[in-house]
Structure formats: structure tokens, C-alpha cells
Design brief:
heterodimer; A: mainly alpha; two-stranded antiparallel ribbon; 2% strand; B: alpha+beta; 3 helices; 2 strands; 45% helix
């Protein structure tokens, strides 16, 4: 069971992973439209935001997945790897499962109070209950973020048959690039 | 009863590659002695040899192998790359 959780891409890649990634993206769009929330970057999730139309949420998902794919695919090719584009696309979209879980867990957050605090940080007007809830929710959220990055690393490593060393540096660079690209594309939207 | 003995390929004392020194005929008892290096394929581990056999039986289709092994395509591709790398390093050590 652990091998499927920690190294899923040794068993699933290509169009199968892309199908799972598409389902994850669809569920993320549904979550965002109900919450309301946004996955407005490769590493981002925000709750308590203004609701967006479904088509914008769909475009955001596409841009996030595209930015992850293009950054890691370019990074893998830079390292001389011979991975297939469909494998990188499929695995990077499937790797977003923890982000969907972050979205679900974050529904427990006091989003209205946090949104208000975001607008007026000087007010420091969080209730005791809100603080405790936020701290408790942060623990699984952080763990899921670590898992998300670990899955992206597994996807990158498996698709291009890489071991640590130079590949770690390229992975970090690709991740940052994916975040920048996704933010730029979503801003244009 | 199935023979489960494995052909040793490395010297247990100094880790150098072993060579074949004698072969015998189980039918008439003829024994042939000499110094014969192991074929390159036999210098690979048993797992790698099984992998190569599966690859040939799948007509070289990594997709089919992935299905049979219950693994993803890149995972099988990576295994093949590792075997190729091993064979290349065997070639290099032979030239040296």
C-alpha cells in the first residue's frame, strides 16, 4: 500500500494518470465553485475569495497543469532525459491529488474571518476559536503540501529516470518556474 | 523437481567475473575443459536476465511489458535503460 502512496508513478503514468488528473481537476473546480476558493498558482490555494465563473476556474486548472508540465518537461530535457511528454503531463496532473485534499481540509477554516483579517491586518480580529481551528487545520495542510511536492519529485524522477544530485537543483528551479508561469498566465486571464 | 540453483557470476572471494572452465555432457559423460568467458547476458543478474527474456517475448514492446509487469511505461523504460547501462559498462570493462 505504501509503495502506491509514495511511488505511484512506478505503476501509473501516461493517459491513465492524465485521466485521473483530469478527474482531480474537475473535482477541484467543483470545490472552488462551492467554497468559494481558487487554485491560482502551481503551489497556491486560497479560500474566502470572491467566487469566479466556472470557465475561469477551468482555465486556471488548465494553466496550472500546463505550467507544471512545461517546466518539468523542459527541466527533464535539460538534464538529457528521454521522457515522454504524455507521461510528464499525466503524472504532474495526477500529482495534484494532495492539493485537492488541501482544498477539502481548508473548508474547515473560518474563511470569512480570515478574509476580513487579510483585508484589515491591523485589526487582529480573529476569535479564539478561529485561531485554534486555523492552527489545527494548518497541520494536515502543511503535511499535504510536503506530500504534493514529494509527488511532483517522484513524477519528475520517474519520467526522466533521474537520481538525486543535479536533478534536485533542476527540480527546485522547475517548480519555481512553474509557479511563476502559472501566476503570469492567471494574471493575464 | 525444478532445479533452483543459480549460476554464480562473481567470485565470492575477490568479486571478479567468473569464467567457465568445464562443461560436461549428461548423456555420454564427455567432459570439455578450457577457459570460456561467460556470455555477456549471463553476467547480468537473474532479474535482469528475466527482464531481457520478457522484453524479447513481448516483441520489444515496452507497452506490453508494462501491462504484463503491472508497471507504468516510464518505469519499464527506466529498467531497460539501467540494463543498457550495465551492458555498456560490461563492454567498457572488457575493453580495459
Amino acid at each position: 500500500m505504501m509503495k502506491y502512496l509514495l511511488k505511484p508513478f512506478e505503476f501509473v503514468a501516461g493517459t491513465k494518470a492524465l485521466t485521473i488528473g483530469a478527474v482531480v481537476a474537475l473535482l477541484s473546480i467543483i470545490l472552488c465553485s462551492l467554497a468559494p476558493a481558487r487554485f491560482d498558482g502551481a503551489l497556491d490555494f486560497h479560500i474566502g475569495v470572491d467566487a469566479l465563473p466556472i470557465w475561469k476556474l477551468l482555465l486556471e486548472q488548465i494553466m496550472v497543469i500546463f505550467s507544471l508540465f512545461i517546466s518539468f518537461y523542459a527541466g527533464g530535457k535539460l538534464l538529457g532525459g528521454s521522457g515522454r511528454a504524455i507521461d510528464m503531463l499525466g503524472t504532474s496532473s495526477m500529482a495534484r491529488i494532495p492539493m485537492l485534499l488541501i482544498g477539502l481540509v481548508s473548508l474547515a477554516l473560518p474563511s470569512e474571518e480570515l478574509a476580513e483579517l487579510g483585508k484589515n491586518p491591523e485589526s487582529l480580529s480573529l476569535s479564539g476559536e478561529a485561531i485554534v481551528t486555523t492552527v489545527l487545520v494548518s497541520i494536515p495542510v502543511l503535511a499535504l503540501y510536503v506530500y504534493y511536492v514529494a509527488l511532483l519529485w517522484q513524477a519528475f524522477k520517474t519520467c526522466f529516470n533521474l537520481s538525486a544530485g543535479k536533478a534536485v537543483a533542476v527540480f527546485i528551479l522547475s517548480l519555481i518556474t512553474a509557479e511563476i508561469i502559472s501566476k503570469l498566465l492567471i494574471t493575464i486571464l | 523437481m525444478e532445479d533452483t540453483t543459480k549460476l554464480p557470476i562473481q567470485c565470492p572471494s575477490c568479486r571478479e567475473a567468473l569464467q567457465v572452465q568445464s562443461l560436461n555432457c549428461q548423456n555420454c559423460g564427455t567432459e570439455v575443459k578450457g577457459k570460456y568467458p561467460l556470455p555477456k547476458l549471463l553476467e547480468l543478474s537473474a532479474d535482469d536476465q528475466d527482464f531481457i527474456l520478457s522484453f524479447v517475448k513481448s516483441s520489444g514492446s515496452l507497452k506490453q511489458m508494462a501491462k504484463l509487469m503491472g508497471r507504468s511505461y516510464p518505469s519499464v523504460r527506466n529498467r531497460l535503460d539501467d540494463v543498457i547501462q550495465q551492458l555498456n559498462s560490461l563492454d567498457k570493462s572488457e575493453e580495459a
